[in-house]
Amino acid sequence: MSASAFSEVWAVLDGQVRLGRFPGYAAAVRHGNHTELRTGGTTSLGGSTPMRPDTVFRIASLSKIVGAALVLRLAGTGAFDLDSPVSRWLPELASPRVLSRPDAELSDTVPAERPIVVRDLLTFTLGLGFVLDDCPLSRAMAARGLMPGPEEAQVGPDELMSRYATLPLAYQPGERWLYHTGAELMGVLVARALGRPLSSLLSEYVTEPLGMVSTGFFAADISRVAASYRPGPSGLEPDDPGNAAVAKPPAVESLGGGLVSTVEDYLSFLNAFLVPTSVLDPQTLRLMTTDSLTQGQRRGVEELMGPGVSWGMGVGLDLERVRPWMRPGRFWWNGGSGTTACVDPGNELAAVLMTQRMMASATGDFDDFWRAVYTRLD
Q1: Are 197 and 230 contacting, i.e. CB atoms less than 8 angstroms apart?
Q2: What does pTM read for this prediction?
Q3: Distance between CA atoms of 276 and 272, rounded to whole angstroms?
Q4: Is 351 helix (H, G, I), strand (E, B) or coil?
Q5: Tens of pLDDT along 98-108?
Q6: 63 contact partners, CB below 8 Å, separation of at least 6
Q7: What is the rounded CA–CA span in Å between residue 363 and residue 167?
């Protein structure tokens, strides 16, 4: 690649391929009116098929940003109101009980002080989600396949909701941010409210208007899918051999982590945050990228992601420059399958990286990439 403005970024990623951190990658950076897209390595460990711009990746929790855009677009059409109780569409959550304290036994509960509303699902403040501590609730969620990750239950939406209905909330609605579960419930709610599959709604309202031809809940062409790996004690270990999990429509279409996409498609999505479209109109942009949390609610984000981070609707927000690449106004998130993306309006920046290496922790896996991007900008 000649005259690259981001040669240092590509050198970092190429070096990680040489070191065996992941077999390959696809990445793109837009700065102002200048865009570069780069691929390196191969689609599988020891394979010969090179990465390409149209290679399909599991994007895991980068799905949440796309899902929030869909939900807010539908809310803007009047399909539902953000302050409506979710029980209208999710009757399983009509009368939630709340643990007397987060680590209490499941039978030690009190009534919810108010209903869960649609807004709570988008802001992850419904009172239920990824519980970091080992406690009766976290064990019960794991046993029911309701914790985020590869072990999530592969069941239909009605069965999924019946499992959630057996659990108390960890916190009162609106009390604290807890990761992930709100996105899963939002997907079921939207499909029920509109009486249509999520895939159909996503295509009509997000992916088709933005030309995201390879983004969906499974891969139409399995030959284009990059293999997936998890870090093990002796190196990378295969996850989902043969890409079977993304070769067919899933039992439940998940807005929490169920999408596959390409670096080309996802950059098109990120670009829409910098140049507003009908998909990301000013109202949707404002709701997604404005801090939605109080200081008390934000403690949940800080436990997972560290200081200086908050949450809008479907996307994380930088509040302080705690790390060299953090900027107030920058919004971003990571996907556990090995993906990361951000938009930084103040720098007219959009960037995305897709790899095949599952994340080892909530933070740290992409530090070298973001450090290189912002070293170039600074």
Answers
A1: no
A2: 0.97
A3: 5
A4: strand
A5: 999 999 999 99
A6: 183, 254, 255, 256, 257, 258, 259, 335
A7: 29
H or E stretch at 280: none
Name which of 2-11, 74-83, 108-117, 341-350 the model is least confident about: 2-11
Rounded distance, CA 51 to CA 57, Å?
A: 11
Q: Are 78 and 150 in contact (CB under 8 A)?
A: no
Handedness of CA 196, 197, 203, 207 (dihedral sign): positive
Handedness of CA 150, 156, 159, 161 (dihedral sign): positive
Task: Give 208-236 pLDDT, tens digit per residue.
Answer: 999 999 999 999 999 999 999 999 999 99
Q: Is 131 helix (H, G, I), strand (E, B) or coil?
A: coil
- CA 336 remoteness from chain centre: 8
Phi, psi values for residue 35, rounded to 5°: -130, 135
Q: Which two tokens stand for residue 199?
A: 């895939």
Contact 341, 62 (CB under 8 A): yes
DSSP state of 196: S
Confirm if 249 and 202 have CB atoms less than 8 A apart: no
- Element containing residue 308 per DSSP (H, E): none
φ, ψ for residue 162 (rounded to 5)? -65, -30
- The contacts of residue 240 (CB under 8 Å, 6+ apart) are 150, 228, 246
349 near 343, Cβ under 8 Å?
yes
